[in-house]
Description:
Blueprint: H1 2-9, E1 13-17, E2 21-29, H2 34-37, E3 41-46, E4 52-57, E5 60-65, H3 83-92, E6 98-114, E7 119-132, E8 139-146, H4 151-162, H5 174-185, H6 204-227, H7 232-252, H8 260-292, H9 304-325, H10 328-346, H11 359-380, H12 387-407, H13 413-451, H14 459-490, H15 493-501
Antiparallel strand pairs: 1-6, 2-3, 2-6, 3-4, 4-5, 6-7, 7-8
Helix pairs in contact: 6-7, 6-10, 6-11, 7-8, 7-12, 8-9, 8-10, 11-12, 12-13, 13-14, 13-15
Domain CHAD: 200-488
Protein name: CHAD domain-containing protein
InterPro entries: CHAD_dom, CHAD_dom_sf
Amino acid sequence: MLRSLATAAGSRYELHPGPRRVRTVTYLDTADHRLRRKNLVLTHERAGAAGELVLTGRGDTHTVRLKELPRFPARLEQLPGGLVRDELGPVVGIRAVLPTLTARTVTREVAVRDSRGDLVAKFEWIETTVTEPAAAEPLVRITLYPQPGCRKAGERLAKRLRAQPQIRSASSAPAQAYTELLTATGALRQAGNGRPPITRDTPAVAAVATALLGFADTIADTLGGVVDDVDTEFLHELRVAVRRTRSLLKLAGDVLPAELARRYAAEFAWLGDLTTPTRDLDVFLLRMEDLANTLLACEAADLRPFTEHLCAQRDRARDELVDGLRSQRFSGLLDGWWRELDAVLQNCGTAGSTSFGSARELAEKRLRRAVKRVVRRAATITPESPSARVHDLRKRCKELRYLLEVARPVCDARAHRAALRDLKRLQDVLGDFQDGEVQSAALHTYAEQLQAVDPRPPAATLLAMGELAAGLVAQQRKARADLTAVLREFLGPVTRQHLKAL
């Protein structure tokens, strides 16, 4: 590469390269690219020994030297303490950071002298070559530092350098350069795996198949993170994709070829049941610190035996989950589902494939039906309604929410945002009600389990669990009280207008 610089410099200038500094740079991000979306770049840079973690962005650079080689993926608590971890905390949350790409970076300082030997400029040459996940052509960033009185000559030289066809210039902004590297290696996968996007005129059957294929992609993409237990969000995302699949099969599966929805609905129900025990325990463990902070009569330390019991239960549940995800039943489900849906897309031009009309026509009919179902059930809820009725409303709201997400491309954007916002307010209260009831009941079950272990937990642990159960019941009662006001608003004229505008 430096030969191209000599060509650009011509006979007027001489280049005097300094020593090469070579580093291995591993770029780190969460699976959903939270750091990149916040214009932050986290790297592990190593030229020898254990290297250092470097966080760049927001005009600052924070560095922490490592005493030993780090292991990735790593959750926040597994990173060394200091400014880097403090800055990462609010962004990554419960997600792990994992390698997104690895590059070899060569840095060199070059002095530029004129024919008299006077120093005209210095520039820093940084050449980055990605090696994983796929090799790519080097990207070069040149930063010029003209000497006093030689700015015009420096700018002229910089223009010549950057015009060289051998140089693929990289952005000087770290976040933009990181995105360019991801793009060059194909690590930023095209949404929908290259399938045509859903539009208003897409045949209804193609729209449903495309949406279902997107959910199947998510299941496949999160599978490795679930099996390796990278972080709890992988299982959460897999479950959401399964629930979206089941809801769409229920609400619009009849547009698919005969029996296809019925055959696979049972298999996705099995997959949902398989993932439930581990996810329920994850939710409890993720809430444990917040729950412990609500204790008044007991200490947070009193809950330690309970937390250890939950961790042991989760280990057993996760073993069963991983066995299921490695089974022939699961691989057959996913492979067969992809194959069947691809066949649906391939046959969209055949007779009968347009019998349900366009995506817009299907969305209009199914949204109207789903909205009526939710409104009808919401109107029957009173402060005296049994919990089962409230939970049924929550399920119908969740189905409508997933249908709204699928129908987003064919809806008016403003009406869609307003309807989704109204629905989410109702869902939040219904979720608090559900969590309060389910988790308080679970605490009683866990207390009975602890009573059966040897040695039995101290009385303080059971008392602390009782206090937690009381707090969850109070949460449920508050949600029940809030529900009346939220339902009144949801059933009012403003929300009705938003739903009608869909």
